[in-house]
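REQUEST ID: PR-0412
SUBMITTED BY: lab tech R.K.
PRIORITY: routine
TASK: structure prediction, single protein chain
INPUT:
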Amino acid sequence: MTTAESVPVRIAALPMYDFPELRDAHDRLWTALVQRLRTHGVTPVPERLTRDLGHREIWTHPGLLFGQACEYPVSKYLRERLKIIATPSYNAPGCTANSYRSAIVVHADELVSSLEDLRERRCVVNEPDSNSGMNLFRASLAPVSGGARFFRSVSFSGSHQKSIELVAAGEADVTAVDCVTLAHLQRFHTHPTSRVKVIGWTPSSPCLPFVTAAQTGEAAFQALCSSVADVFTDSTLAPVRELLLLEGVNLSPDTTLSRVSELEAQAQRWRYPVLL
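STATUS: complete
OUTPUT:
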């Protein structure tokens, strides 16, 4: 069988948790996938992960063979650009099965006992359309917002790591951080994470899905599903999965991302449609 297709130059990328300390593990995971995809007759397959493009460029690249994406952009404006392959599960505080939550984080010295205590504080989030930084946090705040502006200010840092650093330095008061990112930062970046604390958790939604470009043909898509399933059960890859906190994979995910839309709709019913 061959699944060679007339497609743009193919790329693969795993930008969401690709900290320097995890790049070798991601490379080993991708190498294992490459071997299996070639066995299935998929060509061409990129030898290496792409790391010179931003995540938005990756998500909209017509040659994306394998990647990982944030659910909120996928649900809002990337539905026609991406196909969901599977949803991983992670071994991190805040994760349950194939779902994750965001940790609500303040400075370690902050005296806060409830979400209401955050009113009129300085909020920082990674990006305005982040599911973990914005959508899940908005869902937490909507019931206590009173349908009015909640924070004194909301700024955007560009990454969860930067948000943690700003809160740790006292330049912002609160942020919401994807619990998988937080677990990695607590292992590899102990200085800023030791100066913050978790005061609560957001509602949950499915973990960030593995995706491929909409142009990917059906034969290649099925090969991706089979290859992903195999690397999650290969005992020789257990040390790689452990380092990446990968625990399992759901090959029958909700491709409508209904949970993401449900949380947004709930916030709108509370008259808090925008994180402000």
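NOTES: Residues 23-39 form the longest helix (17 residues).
REVIEWED BY: pending
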